[in-house]
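Q: What would this complex look like in 3D?
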Amino acid sequence: MPEFMDVHTTMKGVTSEALAEAHQADLAIQDDEQVNFKHAWADPESGMVFCLSEAPSAEAVQRIHERAGHPADNIYEVPIQA
Amino acid sequence: MPEFMDVHTTMKGVTSEALAEAHQADLAIQDDEQVNFKHAWADPESGMVFCLSEAPSAEAVQRIHERAGHPADNIYEVPIQA
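A: Here is my prediction, written as structure tokens for the whole assembly.
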């Protein structure tokens, strides 16, 4: 299954609680699209949030994020890792 | 130790070998600054590369990346995770 890193750029001031809640919202519905959100990293100062997932496609990642209320600004397939 | 996600935006066409080599170049000198590069994810189509590290500061991350020949375009501290 391909892996993706999606990026949100507008979450300035995000708190631990807010990120946990957003992540839970994804987890609650991710099975609908065979997506597996693995981890999320957030920088409250810049508002940048990075989400690592496994999914059939970038579109599937975005559909889950949209339904959970926080569409990604960019989604990148990351087939190369080290 | 704080964690950082740094982003490179100009590595279009990056190969597995090239990413492995760049990552090794970081690993070889990272102890000089108490940096620990944990993982790198690359999208050869867009040229985006995401590097997760533990480090005393963003500046320490950048100094290692610069010495290894591939300065990051942005470095974000990511104190909030889920």
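A: To summarize the key features: Residues 16-29 of chain B form the longest helix (14 residues). Residues 2 and 57 of chain B are 7 Å apart (CA to CA).
Q: Very helpful, thank you.
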